[in-house]
Design a protein that fits this description.
four-stranded antiparallel sheet; globular
Length: 52
């Protein structure tokens, strides 16, 4: 599996700590075990992709 092509939805659990980017282009550093947050701009559900 290539994690760079995998997207994660708001509320899913982070499997791998790292830097992620949301659909809106905002970056966030997330820790393993945290939940993916809502969009930092709109507050709505979004998708995240790992950037590192």
């Amino acid at each position: 599996m290539n994690s760079t092509n995998t997207s994660y939805r708001t509320g899913e659990i982070v499997d791998h700590a790292g830097n992620y980017i949301s659909e809106s282009g905002k970056k966030d550093q997330l820790k393993k075990g945290e939940k993916f947050p809502a969009c930092p701009l709109s507050g709505n559900e979004t998708t995240w992709k790992i950037t590192d």
